Amino acid sequence: MVTHVPSEAPGDELGALLAFLDEQRGGIRRAVLGLTEEQAASKPSASELSLGGIVKHVAEVEQSWLARAKGEEPAVHREPSNWHECFQLVGDETVEGQLAYWEKVAAETEAFMRAADSLDVTFALPDQPWFPPEGRVSLRWLLLHLIRETARHAGHADVVRESLDGKTAFELVALAAESGS
To answer: What is the 3-state secondary structure (H, E, C) of 135-170?
Structure first.
């Protein structure tokens, strides 16, 4: 744990889940702190991951799951021909633009979850071979999935950032505090 997640008010499961999700988002946001676009696009480790690509991916994934929960189509459709673009900035995309988009998506996620009657509300999974036929999941499952997905990529971001300039997650927490980010 790099930052402390405050304890929820007794019985505030939704508040706790949202706080843990935001804490993981913060790890990724801090990983790009102070970097140039060129640094954020670089791939300094054995992986093909870049920090800019990670930011884009987590924003896109969160938006797509939120859309599914709302019964809408995701903003971006990925298929084999464009799958590679979900982990890289293309065209005029920038880290700053992706962070702003993700902030908007995060606010939509929180508003949607807070407006829901219950975390037990379910929605249909997409008709894709890796999901069970006619599968459904709850909003609780969705938040846990987003926490898991974001945490996984926050760990990737830690490794990529440290490979770039040696800064660790703890140093980035201090840097963010100094800069007010």
So the answer is: CEEEHHHHHHHHHHHHHHHHHHHHHHHHHHHCCCHH
